Amino acid sequence: MENIEVFLVNAFTKDGSGGNPAGVVLNADRLNDADKLHIAQVIGYSETAFVSSDAEVDFEVSFFTTTGEVDFCGHATLATFSVLHQKGFITDGQYRQRTKAGVLPVSVNALGEVTMVQALPTFGRTFSNSEMSGLIGIEEKALESMSFPAQVVSTGLPDLIIQVPKGYLDKVNIDEAKLIEFSKEHELVGAHVFELFDGTEATASCRNFAPLFGISEESATGSASGALACYLDKYLAAEHSRSFVFEQGRAMGALSQIFASVESNEHGVQRVKVGGVANVMGSKIVSLQD
């Protein structure tokens, strides 16, 4: 029997609280996929990251939910590099991680703030307000007042981005069975629902739902935050800064803060960055059967 240490980390914290928990396993080269899935299930967080060596880049990182592997996870990336930095495995600087979403740069500064470069966006199909109403439990009439369409956007993982009127975010009531089937049919991770703010320190407040992957709701989602930043860059255009601050997790009592920025020119988006801070809460030992 082998014992594996799993670091327990809150990612995208705001003023030291809130955030989204992730597990992090270092030196994971010897673990197979079945081992990783078992560890992720024992930890029970939305994602656990596994760090392995790589011959060409700094690290290979794989991500597992309680149901299986996903190509990328933003908050678990933040958790991973926070652990590496706080435990002295890396210093301030620029790094590259190999993921199933590609080789992605990550930077860490002296304050422990982690910024990750995500894959360039792909914009998928849009959906009608009537379809969205049935998924999120908001009447169609309210959704019709929105300027921007519900659309699939991916910066590594495809999410359905849905705007609701200000004051409606806390009223969202997901039909999990419908969203699971919808996600399967359209090859989505889940739905990222947001309301825009005016003149506050946050650009938008968000909620993320991925029941297909065993996540009823998540308090901070890095991948979807990158997708939302690209979505807002596309639809707000010159009306808005290309730097965004998102809050998430309010309805869960775990208010989180996520920073995102988009660099674009006449040829489209050239770079997407998402960042924040994380707190290492401790660790847990998980036993693997021989």
TrEMBL record:
Gene Ontology cellular-component terms for this entry are: cytoplasm
User: What family classification does the UniProt entry report for this protein?
Assistant: Belongs to the PhzF family.
Alphabetic keyword roster? Isomerase
Organism (species): Vibrio fortis
Active-site residue numbers: E47
Q: Which Gene3D superfamilies match?
A: Diaminopimelate Epimerase, Chain A, domain 1 (3.10.310.10)
Provide a Gene Ontology MF annotation, just one: isomerase activity
Instruction: List the InterPro entries.
Output: Phenazine_PhzF-like (IPR003719)
Q: Which Pfam families match?
A: PhzC-PhzF
The record's PANTHER family line, in alphabetical order, gives:
BIOSYNTHESIS PROTEIN, PUTATIVE-RELATED, PHENAZINE BIOSYNTHESIS PROTEIN
For this entry, the protein name equals PhzF family phenazine biosynthesis protein
